[in-house]
Amino acid sequence: MTTILSIKDLRKTYDDGFEALKGVSLDIRQGEILALLGPNGAGKTTLISTICGITTPTSGTVTVGGHDIQADFRAARRMIGLVPQEIALEPFEKVWNTVRFSRGLFGLGHDSARIEEILRKLSLWDKRKNAIKELSGGMKRRVLIAKALAHEPRVLFLDEPTAGVDVELRKDMWAIVDELKAAGVTIILTTHYIEEAEAIADRVGVIDKGELLLVQDKKTLMAQMGKKQIEVMLTCTIPSIPDSLAHHNLVLNGQGDALIYTYDTNAERTGITTLLNDVAEAGLILRDVQTRQSSLEEIFVTLVSGDAA
């Protein structure tokens, strides 16, 4: 797959000595959805701002479609759409003009049909004649998305696009993401809603303290780092785990009627058969057995906490 965005040893150090980015390197493929996860202050927004030309890097290089973001700024920026976290719109301007102006900034001619298509997709058509100040917070967020799409970018950055917005907008947003991906648009998403990244991303990147800890195919990541748990539900409650089962490193649930066993999906042997035999020998009767896979959120917490093997 063709690389459309290439980041090499990108660094950003502020005047007070704070290192926001510490040698980030990353190649992003054309047409993929990359979810960038990280705690507050990890460097996600700084990375996006630098790529989009809002922040000047201290060192390193970034190319978009082969265009260097500093040496060939205009061509690089023309390929990028950005939906920022902050809502910064001219309050007295009308929705239609706001979106149309964004298209003109990139040297594209007026295209009423294209603008209408975007506004309709984002449920903004009925608001096209309204001033920005008359819109709700969710509607203003929709306008930001419309502005980012107006010049038909090949790379779209979504910086916490659904933070604090209604469920309807989220559904609209992800429907548009699916359409854009189908059209070959590359999407880089930062989000605190990890379930969204788990649902739509092709690859997941984890950044913390300005360093890119990992970039991995989502399914491969979950297979490599995911743990499975088996919950052995009992027909009665017990006060504690019997001594004969202590070597299985079990956890007793809060109600005292289930034993929770965690195992590595990549291990040669899971130990489940031995566990179930030992449970029976301990005189405990099984009511049911359930399993569950670790979520992306749990994997993320493990990586950031430094507990990953």
UniProtKB/TrEMBL annotation:
GO terms for molecular function: ATP binding; ATP hydrolysis activity. Pfam families: ABC_tran. It comes from the Bacteria. Gene3D superfamilies: P-loop containing nucleotide triphosphate hydrolases (3.40.50.300). Transmembrane segments: none annotated. Keywords: ATP-binding, Nucleotide-binding, Transport. InterPro entries: AAA+_ATPase, ABC_transporter-like_ATP-bd, ABC_transporter-like_CS, ABC_transporter_ATP-binding, P-loop_NTPase. Residues 5-234 form the ABC transporter domain. This is ABC-2 type transport system ATP-binding protein. It comes from Ruegeria intermedia.
